[in-house]
Amino acid sequence: MSARYGTLGDLQKEAAERNIDLSEAEIRWAEIAIFKKACRLVKENRDYPGKMLLCSMRMSPTVDGVVRSWHVEKAAGADIVYTCPPGYLEGLLETGGHLEFRNQIDDPAPQAVMEKLLKIPYFNRGMRRMVIPSMSSTPIRLWWPRPRNFPERPSRWLTLFPSASPILRIILNHRCFTGSANH
Fold it and tell me: Tens of pLDDT along the chain (183 residues)?
């Protein structure tokens, strides 16, 4: 939820507490830098069965009097999934004819912007602590009551749900699931 990081989290609050003025572009760079790092980590960890989702995008920032959509432009080239609300799509179609869609996912944020953002603890924590746990060392566990008519062993669920999503198939095949409601 890219734009929500800059608007609903503590980024702007902690910046203000430290007398750091953030422009609209710097807020977008914070969101984009976090997203780019997450994309890089997913790409580097081939055992991770997930895919990044880019959502809550904005038509922003305004650069030289022109409204951009950096959430999409700066993520171009990434192997990701997008969800675009109708209002965003309208803005993109109405004013987005000038947008730059070249591979930018591996381009870093400007160094001066990163130096400024890293002085904000909220951003610093997001950039420094982001890790993807190994599938073998940190199993994913899902808990919910198991209906009586479902098999005891999760691996047998695949016979009931042959079109199960790839992530569900990975979870079931790696025995990372527990059907017990007692946890």
Answer: 677 888 888 999 999 999 999 999 999 999 999 999 988 888 888 777 778 888 888 889 999 998 899 988 999 999 888 888 888 888 888 887 777 778 999 999 999 999 999 999 999 988 886 655 554 444 433 333 344 444 444 444 444 444 444 444 444 444 333 343 333
Same-domain pairing of 76 and 150: no
Q: Which domain holds residue 115?
A: 2-128
> Domain check: are 29 and 114 in the same one?
yes
pTM of the model: 0.69
In a domain, 88, yes or no: yes
Alpha-carbon gap, residue 92 to 79, rounded angstroms: 20
CA pair distance 77, 60, nearest whole angstrom: 19
In a domain, 108, yes or no: yes
**Long-range contact pairs involving 39-42 (C-beta distance under 8 Å, separation at least 24):** 39/75, 39/78, 39/79, 39/80, 39/105, 40/106, 41/130, 41/131, 41/132, 42/132
Half-sphere exposure of residue 60: CA atoms within 13 angstroms, side-chain side: 18
